[in-house]
User: What shape does this take?
Amino acid sequence: GEHLRASWFFASRDYDYARAVRDDAGNLQGIITLRRTNTSAGGSMWLNTIFLLAAGLVALGLAVLVFYLITTRLILSPVRALRDTAEAVQQGNLDTRSDIHTGDEFEDLAEAFNLMVQDLAERQRQLRAINASLEEKANQLAERNVELFEAARVKDEFLASVTHELRTPMNRV
Assistant: This one.
């Protein structure tokens, strides 16, 4: 048969090959052996290792860059926009709306947030109208209360005058 062996010897690569030579009857006639040493194999291996590591680092750098861009643009940017809108609403600006067009759940969330702010603004308008109405009624009640107080004072004066006028003739009688 044949035998093949490759081994490292420091920075060189050794290749051994052996093959049996037989006649037509199958008797062994001899063995052919070859030995070859490649001294540049170690340098090539180190060069390939350096290229492989460099390619891996470039691929890792590109993967990190793509991950950063995807995270920043697709996830963090809509969240920051919603946060800014929420802060504006918290400060009392109910005319602020979130303008996110990503075509995903963030856009649905922005639309729900906008509807909530719109509903909040409508309820605030209704409350202001109710407060104005209540303030007007409170003013009317205050005016009515002043009129009643004045009527009570006039009544007390009238009773005091009538009592005085009735007492004077009664005293004479």
Observations:
- The beta strands are 2-9, 12-22, 28-38.
